[in-house]
């Protein structure tokens, strides 16, 4: 078995809460190593209180077991993930599903005013949008509103 | 940060985040408007997620589990700062506590991110990415309250009442930073007071503990869902 085969299998696992995007698109799988019949995976949660964490871990273990290998999945809790790690393909999938993708993380302290700019509405493309709530239905989302098509929409928070 | 056992430091942080997360969740369903209902519920979820990670790191060192640390200690053994234990705060005081805690927490996390211990520094950095949203939310509310006379009065009154508690969140060496930052933001001097330190507890904690640990105590063999 090669690490490429494992990456391919993991790329088939959808995010449990935003199933249009895979966990590989999200960039949360940090490392894959194959040693004989054991596959070691390092991954990190998006947000630490994300209830999908355990579901993601179990899905990875099942996908590796389906390849006929012994899974060893580690949760890494460090600074190794940012929304900047979401792939270009992943961003496009988010947009197509009605989620504004996260903006690039600023080098300096993030300020509210940066998030109050008019980001593009994933439905009509207008930038006449505003921040309704920094917080949303899951830890990773904010709520925005489009003044042109009058559609509320969610944006993946930049972290 | 002065040198002290790592597990002790982790438990202080974890207990602060767990207890405050619980307090924030008490606004779920009853906040003054829907956006704040969502905000405080989401902040609560983040804080409890941080507590879980901190307890897990402490548990590995102490040879126990995160759940045992979170739920099986007696209320007197928690290391939380009295600031996070206070209950039934009306809205201005809730915002005052939120802003004071998040401001203190930013100072504490900055110190931890620079720690020599890579596990602690890495975890602090990951937490800080999420806490940035809590701070922006708290700052937005401070702006809003400072923009009217009544808002300013009520915020000032709440800040003065909670100030000795806020100082107690931080180690002695970090308190001057909190004072400087808070005084600059509020544009006034804050009272010289004795900090309300960790180690003693508000009576409110016992009530929270009863509620928080009820399911676990009622099913000693482990509740199954």
Topology, element by element:
The complex is a heterodimer of chains A (159) and B (225).
Chain A: H1 3-10, H2 23-26, E1 29-35, E2 38-43, H3 52-66, E3 70-75, H4 88-96, E4 99-100, H5 112-115, E5 129-133, E6 141-146, E7 152-156
Parallel strand pairs in A: 2-3, 4-7
Antiparallel strand pairs in A: 1-2, 5-6, 6-7
Chain B: H1 6-25, H2 34-62, H3 66-71, H4 82-85, H5 91-113, H6 118-146, H7 149-167, H8 175-186, H9 204-212, H10 214-218
Helix pairs in contact in B: 1-2, 2-6, 5-6, 5-7, 5-8, 6-7
Q: What profile does the largest beta sheet of chain B have?
A: none
Which structural category do the helix and sheet elements of chain A fall into?
alpha/beta
Give the CATH architecture of the largest domain in chain A.
2-Layer Sandwich
Beta fraction of chain B: under 5%
> In total, how many beta strands of chain A?
7
The CATH class designation of chain B is Mainly Alpha
User: Would you tell me which CATH topology of chain B applies?
Assistant: Ferritin
CATH classification, class level of the largest domain in chain A = Alpha Beta
Average pLDDT of chain A, rounded to a whole number, is: 93
Describe the structure.
The complex is a heterodimer of chains A (159) and B (225). Chain A is α/β, with parallel strands linked by helices. Chain A folds into 2 domains: 3-75, GMP Synthetase, Chain A, domain 3 (2-Layer Sandwich); 97-156, no CATH class. Chain A has 5 helices and 7 strands; from the N terminus they run H-H-E-E-H-E-H-E-H-E-E-E. Chain A has helices at 3-10, 23-26, 52-66, 88-96, 112-115, and strands at residues 29-35, 38-43, 70-75, 99-100, 129-133, 141-146, 152-156. A 4-stranded mixed beta sheet of chain A has the order 4-7-6-5. In chain A, strands 1-2-3 form a 3-stranded mixed beta sheet. The longest helix of chain A has 15 residues, at 52-66. Chain A starts with a helix and ends with a strand. The mean pLDDT of chain A is 93. Chain B is mainly alpha-helical. Chain B has a single domain (6-218), classed as Ferritin, core subunit, four-helix bundle (Ferritin, Up-down Bundle). Chain B is built from 10 helices and no strands. Chain B has helices at 6-25, 34-62, 66-71, 82-85, 91-113, 118-146, 149-167, 175-186, 204-212, 214-218. The longest helix of chain B has 29 residues, at 34-62. The radius of gyration of chain B is 17 Å and the shape is globular. Chain B starts with 5 loop residues before the first helix and ends in a 7-residue tail after the last helix. The mean pLDDT of chain B is 95. At the A-B interface, loops of A face helix 2 and helix 6 of B.
């Amino acid at each position: 078995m090669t690490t490429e085969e494992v990456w391919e299998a993991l790329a088939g696992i959808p995010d449990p809460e935003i199933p249009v995007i895979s966990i590989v698109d999200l960039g949360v799988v940090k490392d894959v190593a194959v040693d004989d019949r054991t596959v070691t995976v390092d991954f990190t949660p998006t947000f630490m209180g994300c209830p999908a964490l355990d579901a993601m871990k179990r899905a990875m273990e099942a996908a590796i077991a389906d390849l006929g290998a012994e899974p060893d999945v580690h949760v890494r809790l460090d600074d190794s993930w940012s929304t900047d790690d979401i792939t270009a393909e992943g961003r496009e999938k988010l947009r197509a599903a009605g989620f504004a993708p996260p903006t690039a993380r600023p080098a300096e302290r993030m300020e509210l005013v940066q998030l109050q700019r008019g980001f593009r509405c994933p439905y009509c493309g207008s930038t006449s949008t505003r921040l309704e709530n920094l917080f949303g239905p899951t830890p990773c989302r904010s709520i925005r509103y489009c003044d042109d098509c009058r559609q509320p929409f969610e944006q993946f928070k930049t972290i | 940060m002065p040198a002290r056992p790592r597990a002790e430091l982790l438990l202080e942080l974890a207990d602060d985040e767990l207890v405050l997360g619980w307090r924030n969740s008490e606004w779920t369903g009853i906040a003054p408007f829907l956006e704040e209902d969502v905000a405080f519920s989401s902040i609560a979820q983040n804080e409890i997620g941080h507590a879980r990670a901190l307890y897990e790191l402490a548990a590995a060192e102490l040879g126990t589990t995160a759940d045992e640390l979170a739920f099986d200690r007696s209320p007197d053994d928690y290391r939380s700062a009295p600031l996070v234990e206070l209950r039934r705060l009306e809205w201005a005081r809730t915002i005052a506590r939120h802003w004071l805690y998040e401001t203190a927490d930013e100072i504490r996390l900055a110190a931890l991110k620079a720690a020599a211990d890579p596990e602690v520094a890495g975890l602090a950095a990951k937490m800080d990415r999420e806490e940035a949203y809590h701070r922006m939310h708290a700052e937005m509310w401070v702006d809003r309250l400072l923009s009217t006379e009544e808002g300013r009065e009520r915020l000032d009154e709440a800040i003065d009442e909670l100030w000795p508690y806020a100082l107690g969140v931080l180690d002695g060496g970090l308190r001057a930073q909190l004072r400087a930052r808070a005084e600059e933001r509020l544009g006034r001097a804050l009272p010289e007071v004795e900090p309300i330190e960790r180690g003693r507890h508000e009576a409110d904690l016992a009530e929270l503990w009863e509620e928080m640990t009820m399911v676990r105590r009622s099913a000693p063999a482990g509740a199954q869902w």
